[in-house]
Amino acid sequence: MTNKAINIVWFKRDLRIIDNEALFHAHQSGLPLLLVYFFEPSVMNYDDSDVRHWRFVYESIQDLQKKLKSIGGKIYFFHSEVESIFSSLLQHFEINNVFSHQ
After folding, report:
1. CA-CA distance, 24 to 21, in Å (whole number)?
2. Among candidates 67, 55, 88, 84, which has minimal Cα distance to 23?
3. Within a 10 A sphere around the Cβ of 99, how many other Cβ atoms?
4. Strand 93-100, strand 75-78: pairing
5. Which of 43, 52, 79, 81 could bond 39 through an S-S bridge, CB–CB 3.0 to 4.6 Å?
6. Using alpha carbons only, how large is the chain's radius of gyration in Å?
7. Is the pLDDT reported for residue 46 higher than 80?
8. d(CA 25, CA 29)
9. Where does 1-102 have alpha helices with state H?
10. Mean pLDDT of the region 3-24
11. CB of 101 within 8 A of CB of 12?
12. CA–CA separation, 15 vs 41, rounded Å?
């Protein structure tokens, strides 16, 4: 069985759906989109990392989730390193492109 072809939009700092260049270009492809955000433990443990920042990011993702739900979309967020999640995703999908802002 062939895996379903998708494009991934990897949200990093730009947590909005309006005027999001990566999301715009991914949508133009016509393939189904998988929207993802990663809370990477290695990044969260940087010396300059702060709990308040990560709380703000989580709350922003929750707001984004509400907006996406109103249009039938969803963002998936993971508390794991990117490599391990992409390895899992590659077992289930044919990933054509990964779009992200920086």
Report:
1. 5
2. 67
3. 21
4. unpaired
5. 79
6. 14
7. yes
8. 7
9. 21-28, 41-44, 51-69, 82-92
10. 92
11. yes
12. 19
3 state DSSP class of 73: coil
Structure tokens that stand for 99 in this block: 């779009």
Lookup: tokens for 84 = 């391990």
Helix (H, G, I), strand (E, B) or coil at 95: strand
User: Which of 85, 84, 69 minimizes the C-alpha distance to 36?
Assistant: 85
Who's near 68: CB < 8 A, 6+ residues apart?
A: 17, 35, 74, 75
Quick one: 11 exposed, middle or buried, by C-beta within 10 A (0-12, 13-18, 19+)?
buried
Q: Are 84 and 40 in contact (CB under 8 A)?
A: no
